[in-house]
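The following block was generated as part of the benchmark described in Methods. Ligand: 6-O-phosphono-beta-D-fructofuranose.
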Amino acid sequence: MTPKTIKKIGVLTSGGDSPGMNAAIRAVVRAGFYYGLEMYGIYRGYEGMIQDDIKKLDSRYITHILERGGTFLKSARSAEFRTPEGRKKAFDNLQSHGIDALVVIGGDGSLTGAHLFFEEYGIPSIGLPGTIDNDLSGTDLTIGFDTACNTAIEAIDKIRDTATSHDRLFFVEVMGRDAGFIAINAGIGSAAAAILIPERKTSIEALVDKLKTRSKAKKSSNIVIVAEGGQSGSAQQIADEVKTFLPHYDIKVTILGHLQRGGSPTSFDRLLASKLGVAAVEGLLQGKYDVMAGMINNKIVYTPIVKAIVDDKELDEEDLRVANILST
Ligand code: F6P
C-alpha cells in the first residue's frame, strides 16, 4: 500500500496482559520519537479509546518500564468496541487528537478489533502479538509466552519438592485458553509425568495406565500438567476421575492461574518486544497496514491480521514426540 503521511501514532494494550507489553510500548514510543513522530498512549485498550482516555506521551512515561510486568497503559476487554456505535465513538476521539495510525498490542481478540477498525475507517494499524498463550500465527513466539513458561516451571519445581516429600500425585493446571503451548513447554521443562492438552485428547484410561507404569517404576512423585482449555474437564475434574481408578493415591490439585501473567519479562521477551516495537513503527511508515509484526526464524515478518488470528497455530510435533519419550 502507498504509505500515508503519518505524524501521530496511538499505542494501546488490550485483552489479557502479558509480560513484555511494557517493553513493547517503550520500543514503539522510542521508535516513534526516533522518526520524529508524536506518540499517544491510549489507556485501558479500546475502552479508553471510546472514553477518550488518551494522553500525549513524552519520554518520562516510558522510563524504567521495560523491566516491569503488566502494562502501564492498562488493559481491558471492551464489549462496546464490538459494536459499530462504540467504534464510531473511538474513531471520533482519535480524530480529535489527530491520531493517524495505531499500534495494537494484544492477543487474537485485540487484533480482530484492529482489523475491523481498519476495514471500517481505514486508519493505518499494525498489531503486535502480546499474549502468554502463544496462539497467534505469523510469529514463532508471542510476547510474554517465554516469561509465563518460566514462571510456570518455577512454580512446578516448588510443587515437586512437596510432591516428592509426600509421595503425592499433583495435577497442575496452566493457562493458555484453548491452546496447549504453555502446557507442553512447562511440562517438558518440569519433567511432567503426563501433559494433557486440548489439541490431543488423552483418555482417562490411558492416563491411569501411564501412572500405574510409573508407580511400578517406583517414581516417588508425579506431576500431571493440565492445559486449562478443553481436555475432558478441569484439573480438579480429571483428578477426581483418576482417584476413582487409583483410590490409594494421595492426589492434590494446584491451579497456577494469573500468576503466570505477572512478573518481570525474561531477556527473551524483552528482546522480542523491543524488536517488534521498532518493526511496528517502521512497518507503518512503509505502508504496511492491517498486519501483525512477528518474528519467524529470527526475522521480522508482517502477516495480514486475518491470517494471524484465523490460522490454527500448530503445536510443534517434535515437542510432542520429546514430551512423550521423556514421560514414559
Ligand atoms: O489470553 C490470556 C489468558 O491469560 C488465558 O490464558 C486465560 O484463559 C485468560 O486470559 C484469562 O482471562 P481473564 O484474565 O480475563 O480471566
